Amino acid sequence: MDPAEDELDDYSDAVLEIVEQIPPGRVLAYGDIAELLGSGGPRQVGRVMARFGGAVPWWRVLRADGTPPPGHEVRALEEYRVERTPLRPDGRRVDMRRARWPGPS
DNA sequence: CTCTTGACGCCGG
DNA sequence: TCCGGCGCCAAGA
Questions:
Q1: Statement: the CB of A29 is under 7 Å from strand B
Q2: What is the value of pTM for the model shown?
Q3: Nucleotides of C under 7 A from a protein CB
Q4: Which of A25, A55, A58, A73 has its CA 20 to 30 A from that of A96?
């Protein structure tokens, strides 16, 4: 068999490594991760999450405006509730100003 | 090689 | 606040 299709390239590995470090109750936007990495862009990070997100706390990675990943809004909101992640008044999006994680180190 | 796609981001209107 | 449009950039077809 050829498990190559499920293998992680260096970039994907770097992305997941950062996601795993995001503390509960805090989040990071796709673009933030690309910036911390210093390479690639929001869409590249999004591609990685779409393929390997299931292995990490994916709900802590979302759009820059606080909107949770498409198709996973319900699951994500649930997590934010138990993690006490600061949400906007509407309760549908994360309050990025307060929840954004500064980054490693 | 060209064209489309996509868990994005920003700027108007 | 909610769209629509455009830029971005790698992966697929």
A1: yes
A2: 0.94
A3: 1-2, 7-11
A4: A55
A88 touches strand B (CB under 7 A): no
The answer to whether some atom of strand B lies closer than 7 Å to the beta carbon of A40 is: no
Q: A93: which nucleotide lies closest, measuring CA to C1'?
A: C1
How many angstroms separate the CA atoms of A104 and A80, rounded?
A: 21
Contact assessment for residue A61 and residue A69, using Cβ atoms and an 8 Å cutoff: yes
pLDDT in tens, A13-42: 999 999 999 999 999 999 999 999 999 999
Q: What residue ranges define each of the domains in chain A, with the CATH number in brackets?
A: 3-99 (1.10.10.10)
